[in-house]
């Protein structure tokens, strides 16, 4: 498959101002007539041939200005048509079989309903079209379908007319007044019911809101609706963005490749990000729904009103929209807890990407399959990059700049460069050097040394941006670091400062310190970098107990644990050193348990150990087996040393009655954290307490937390609880997904055997992405199981990739990065991982998705 390059961008020679689509819907046969008004693009080089993308389509008829023509030919899957004049009407009819569409791109069937997914290149599986984001059209869509099978007919924009035919079919006509690229097209037809509500915008326009689901799911849509209304209000208040149609529809579907999709006026969602009640969804599921609803809604401006010129600009809408949803969630709940969670995701998913064979800048330079670039780098690092600009200019100037960006580019297909320029003009900042964050891949390493002499503290900073594929040499980047210097005696600091390191090395001096101060740096995680510093243990203990920046406090605790575990994994500690390090950590955790200035949500966050993936990431070459052993051993030691405290915490938290407020959620969070430590230190006690929590649970958070702990242990309680859970929720697909995922991500030594037998369970299918992810993604991200020294875990995932590739290549390719880590793993396992990648590479007829990921991983 060819490589597509950013530098090759050319505007499309034709404009398509209007599109009229007519669908005759059927599950196994849908006929599509597309009427395109086309005219030459004065801003592009003239070309009498219009190149229309197609994927798996055959044209039934091709008309120019209503007359049949044979001036077209196919080039691979695309249709090329010669047009004699300046403007024409092109009409093409195609026929598709949604029931055969297992890729879930284009028009497909899910549970008897029809729905679409077009981003990035799915529209070309529906009809021939210039399927690129810089061709903007207004759409009028006529849908006809069986009235019984498809009582609800939805499309983008506003419903203009509908009616019944006398043959048992009915029809609807939709019109979307806002010009949009084809990737934002959506259509849904099926037996659905709606939770209907309304929202009045800041200018007093009333918008009807619908959340469409399957009949029985209606009672679980309340949280999604509340989240939607909060998002609409927040975007008005914080970004000045008002909704622009009279109708906003959300549809939940159970077969979906990702979380959700921001189609104009008709968002399509994975059921996972819509349906929730306390019996079936955890607190973090509730948060996930709130965040994803907000994210898709926010795209209405950052993505839809201002869209992307080409797919290399993806971070323009995704990075920015992730930042917007993060800020929203920070405002809705606990700001520091949300920040810690976001950093944990960045470190767990994006840092490994940035340090491996798939590393790419947030604005990539080339791709073969764009679906492979919906990555943590484009999304999450993209958000961090925009967050840094916000940190440097402050909230007010940031808002002035986003206003300017939206005003200037409304109705356009823009570029990252357009965004940066709006930021420069609107916020009054020079981002010349900062543009490197868009072009250079790799996580910068900042080395920090603090010197003290007389009254002066001097901070020595240096940076190194590691080489990444295709980018052997890097330039220094501007790195904004928030910092504070604490007085050891008083425990206070002299005010937070922002220091920006722009050179390879620099020094910063601070006067007025008679004693060496304690340095707190990269507060709030102001820059997405790794800090390299030999921080004295007593400084980490100081910061873990006293830092007034909650993120920095979390970070100090994490550093304390990470540096200990690294030494332990290296075998560098004798028994006594091991014991004293564990005691120091136990004291720090004990202080967290005892500190009544902390709320439980934050306490719960501080108790989470650094993940095995993150630990591996801090080492040049990792031994996943050793990391797992040492981390578990430390957890067990902490569970033993703090047993009484954890039991007391669990008891106190168990007395808090169920509610969705922060206090009760915090209580649930620390309860399960306590169980995790207790189960490690004293499995019998942990098992008893988890079993009691399971049986007494009146909500999914407690039930799932307890079951998670039990699933990692052995004994009759484990089997009983798993069986009870399955029987209780059989038939609720999202909860059955949890049942698969808990077993596939468990600490149980026989995890792999469990996964192998679950693959044969009657509820398992490779056709449903949620189910595939719940079993195999959970397994692939369960280090002790995936990295089994025998290599069986690697083989299992390679088998999944090969089996899934012909069914759903997009989802199959998502498993490759785990095997792609081979260069960073100890030699024995590394060879086994590579062997599996080579086995995949040698398979005949790989999809473009999987081929690209495997070849980059080996390259
Ligand atoms: N924009 C979509 C992602 C589409 C992914 C296609 N492979 C969801 C989102 O980021 O909001
Ligand atoms: Zn998005």
TrEMBL record:
Catalyzed chemical reaction(s): Release of an N-terminal amino acid, Xaa-|-Yaa- from a peptide, amide or arylamide. Xaa is preferably Ala, but may be most amino acids including Pro (slow action). When a terminal hydrophobic residue is followed by a prolyl residue, the two may be released as an intact Xaa-Pro dipeptide
One of the Pfam families matching this protein, by short name: DUF3458
Domain Aminopeptidase N-like N-terminal: 20-184
Domain Peptidase M1 alanyl aminopeptidase C-terminal intervals: 538-858
The keyword Zinc is assigned to this record: yes
Alphabetical list of InterPro entries matching this protein: Aminopeptidase_N-like_N, Aminopeptidase_N-like_N_sf, PepN_Ig-like_sf, Peptidase_M1, Peptidase_M1_dom, Peptidase_M1_pepN, Peptidase_M1_pepN_C, Peptidase_M1_pepN_C_sf
Any one GO MF annotation of this record: alanyl aminopeptidase activity
Peptidase M1 membrane alanine aminopeptidase domain span: 224-434
Main enzyme class: hydrolase
Domain Peptidase M1 alanyl aminopeptidase Ig-like fold: 442-533
Entry's EC annotation: 3.4.11.2
Alphabetized UniProt keyword annotations: Aminopeptidase, Hydrolase, Metal-binding, Metalloprotease, Protease, Zinc
The keyword NADP belongs to this UniProt entry's keyword annotation: no
CDD domains xref list: M1_APN
Co-factor(s): Zn(2+)
Entry's transmembrane regions: none
Protein family per UniProt: Belongs to the peptidase M1 family.
The protein's name: Aminopeptidase N
Organism: Aurantiacibacter gilvus
Gene (UniProt): pepN
């Amino acid at each position: 498959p060819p490589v597509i390059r950013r530098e090759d961008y050319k505007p499309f020679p034709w404009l398509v101002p209007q599109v009229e689509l007519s669908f005759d819907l059927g599950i196994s046969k849908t006929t599509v007539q597309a009427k395109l008004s086309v005219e030459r693009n004065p801003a592009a080089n003239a070309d009498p041939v219009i190149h229309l993308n197609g994927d798996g389509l055959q044209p039934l008829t091709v008309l120019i200005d209503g007359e049949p023509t044979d001036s077209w030919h196919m080039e691979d899957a695309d249709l090329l048509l010669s047009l004699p004049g300046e403007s024409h009407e092109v009409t093409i009819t195609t026929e598709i079989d949604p029931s055969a569409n297992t890729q879930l791109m284009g028009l497909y069937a899910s549970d008897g309903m029809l729905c679409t997914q077009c981003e990035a290149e799915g529209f070309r599986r529906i009809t021939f079209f210039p399927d690129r984001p810089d061709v903007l059209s207004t759409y009028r869509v006529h849908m006809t379908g069986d009235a019984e099978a498809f009582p609800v007919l939805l499309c983008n924009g506003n419903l203009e007319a509908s009616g019944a035919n006398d043959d048992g079919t009915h029809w609807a006509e939709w019109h979307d007044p806002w010009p949009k690229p084809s990737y934002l097209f959506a259509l849904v037809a099926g037996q659905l019911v709606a939770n209907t509500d309304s929202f009045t915008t800041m200018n007093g326009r009333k918008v009807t809101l619908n959340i469409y689901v399957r009949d029985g799911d209606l009672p679980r849509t309340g949280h999604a609706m509340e989240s939607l209304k909060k998002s609409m209000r927040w975007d008005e208040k914080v970004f000045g963005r008002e909704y622009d149609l009279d109708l906003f529809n959300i549809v939940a579907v159970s077969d979906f490749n990702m979380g959700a999709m921001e189609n104009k006026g008709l968002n399509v969602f994975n059921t996972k990000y819509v349906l929730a009640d306390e019996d079936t969804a955890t607190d973090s599921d509730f948060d996930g729904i709130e965040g994803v609803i907000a994210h898709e809604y926010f795209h209405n401006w950052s993505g839809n009103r201002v869209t992307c010129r080409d797919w290399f600009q993806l971070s323009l809408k995704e990075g920015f929209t992730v930042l917007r949803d993060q800020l929203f969630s920070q405002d809705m709940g606990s700001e520091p807890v949300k920040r810690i969670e976001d950093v944990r995701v960045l470190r767990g998913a994006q840092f490994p990407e940035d340090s491996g064979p798939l590393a790419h800048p947030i604005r990539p330079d080339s791709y073969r399959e764009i679906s492979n670039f919906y990555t943590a780098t484009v999304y999450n690092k993209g958000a961090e990059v925009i967050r840094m600009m916000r940190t440097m200019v402050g909230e007010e100037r940031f808002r002035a700049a986003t206003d300017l960006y939206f005003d200037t580019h409304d109705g356009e297909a823009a570029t990252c460069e357009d965004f940066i320029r709006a930021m420069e003009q609107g916020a009054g900042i020079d981002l010349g050097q900062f543009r490197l964050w868009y072009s250079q891949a790799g996580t910068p390493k900042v080395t920090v040394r603090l010197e003290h002499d007389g009254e002066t503290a001097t901070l020595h900073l240096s940076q190194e941006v590691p080489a990444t594929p295709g980018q052997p040499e890097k330039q220094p980047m501007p790195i904004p670091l928030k910092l504070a210097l604490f007085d050891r005696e008083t425990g206070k600091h002299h005010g937070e400062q922002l220091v920006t390191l722009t050179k390879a090395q620099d020094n910063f001096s601070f006067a007025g310190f008679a004693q060496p101060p304690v340095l707190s740096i990269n507060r709030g995680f102001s820059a997405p970098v790794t800090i390299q510093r030999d921080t004295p243990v007593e400084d980490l203990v100081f910061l873990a107990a006293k830092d007034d920046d909650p993120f920095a406090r979390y970070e100090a605790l994490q550093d304390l644990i990470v540096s200990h575990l690294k030494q332990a994994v290296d075998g560098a500690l004798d028994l006594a050193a091991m014991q004293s390090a564990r005691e120091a950590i136990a004291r720090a955790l004990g202080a967290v348990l005892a500190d009544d200035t902390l709320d439980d949500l934050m306490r719960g966050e501080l108790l989470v150990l650094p993940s095995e993936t993150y630990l591996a990431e801090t080492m040049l070459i990792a031994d996943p087996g050793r990391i797992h052993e040492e981390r578990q051993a430390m957890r067990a030691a902490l569970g033993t040393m703090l047993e009484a405290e954890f039991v007391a915490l669990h008891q106190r938290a168990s007395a808090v009655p169920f509610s969705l407020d922060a206090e009760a959620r915090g209580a649930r969070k620390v309860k399960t954290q306590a169980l995790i430590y207790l189960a490690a230190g004293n499995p019998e006690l942990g098992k008893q307490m988890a079993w009691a929590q399971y049986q007494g649970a009146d909500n999914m958070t407690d039930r799932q937390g307890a079951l998670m702990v039990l699933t990692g242990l052995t004994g009759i309680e484990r089997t009983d609880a798993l069986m009870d859970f399955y029987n209780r929720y059989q038939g609720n697909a999202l909860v059955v997904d949890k049942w698969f995922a808990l077993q596939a991500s468990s600490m149980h030594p026989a995890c792999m055997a469990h996964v192998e037998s679950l693959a044969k369970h009657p509820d398992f299918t490779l056709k449903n992405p949620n189910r595939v992810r719940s079993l195999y993604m959970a397994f692939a991200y369960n280090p002790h199981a995936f990295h089994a020294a025998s290599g069986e875990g690697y083989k299992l995932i390679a088998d999944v990739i090969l089996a899934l590739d012909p069914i759903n290549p997009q989802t199959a390719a998502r498993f490759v990065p785990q095997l792609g880590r081979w260069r960073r793993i100890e030699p024995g396992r590394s060879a086994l991982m590579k062997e599996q990648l080579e086995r995949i590479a040698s398979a005949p007829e790989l999809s473009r998705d999987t081929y690209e990921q495997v070849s980059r991983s080996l390259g």
